[in-house]
Amino acid sequence: MLGLVASGIAVSTARADMIDTSGMAPWEPCAECHNMDGISHMAKFPKLAAQRYAYIVKQIGDFQTERRTNDGGKMVSNAGLLSDEDVVAVAKYFSALPPPPPVKTEASAETISLGRRLFTKGKPEAGVDACASCHAGAGVAGVLAPRIEAQHADYLKKELLDFPAGKRANDPDERMRKIARALSDAEIVAVAAYASTLERPQGAAQ
After folding, report:
1. How far is 105 from 21, CA to CA, in rounded Å?
2. How far from chain centre, in Å, is Cα 138?
3. What is the pLDDT of residue 1?
4. C-alpha pair distances (Å), 138 with each of 58, 97, 133
């Protein structure tokens, strides 16, 4: 039995060694999940096309230092393979890609209306600013927030649920954890659905 196990490990290792990434651009392995055009097909992987350059750099760095681990460990491992030069190249590549198209949502008109209100006006009674103040367009100077327009709604929902659950903790000053705790599950679903329907502006490598 031990011989079979050992044999299996040897075969597995050999197969892994057969995957040759030499000669590949630093962003090509990322495309396995995020696609070469930066528009992933699965909601578990965020769309990186036209994402802010500095935000991509920060998130890769956070995965490398394990300040962010809410991905089952896959990104921690993958990010650890990148050099500083690779991180810059990856961020430049994805940030300069054409933005993803807005999502055609199946959410109800009521849900979209609630999401629009939260995105554009926030929830003042709970101390929550409008999402657009940081996440839309050019954002706010000094605040490094991702562009969330045209993102997978289910991805946004998961991240907003991960913050208050303690699964994601790399937000400066716990800002997103405080915001997410102030939103109900229905409000999280609504704002995620609405954001997915918005146009994302063209990014630019910096």
Report:
1. 37
2. 18
3. 39
4. 17, 17, 9
Q: State how far the alpha carbon of 183 is from the alpha carbons of 55, 107, 129, 168, in Å.
A: 24, 18, 12, 16
Non-local CB neighbours of 182 within 8 Å, separated by 6+ positions: 123, 126, 127, 128
Please report the pLDDT score of residue 20 as a whole number: 53
Q: For residue 97, give both structure tokens.
A: 């890609």
Residue tagged 């208050």 (tokens): 164
Whole-model pTM? 0.86
Tell me the three state secondary structure of residue 149. coil
Quote the Cα angle for 27-91-89, to 5°. Answer: 60
Which pLDDT value is given to residue 138?
64
Q: How much is the pLDDT for 11?
A: 37
CA distances (Å), 82 to each of 15, 176, 192, in order? Answer: 22, 27, 31
Q: Which residue has the tokens 């704002």?
A: 191
Place of tokens 């994402």: 51
Listed as ranges, residues in the chain with pLDDT below 70 are: 1-22, 137-142, 204-206
Look at residue 23 in the predicted model and tell me its pLDDT: 79
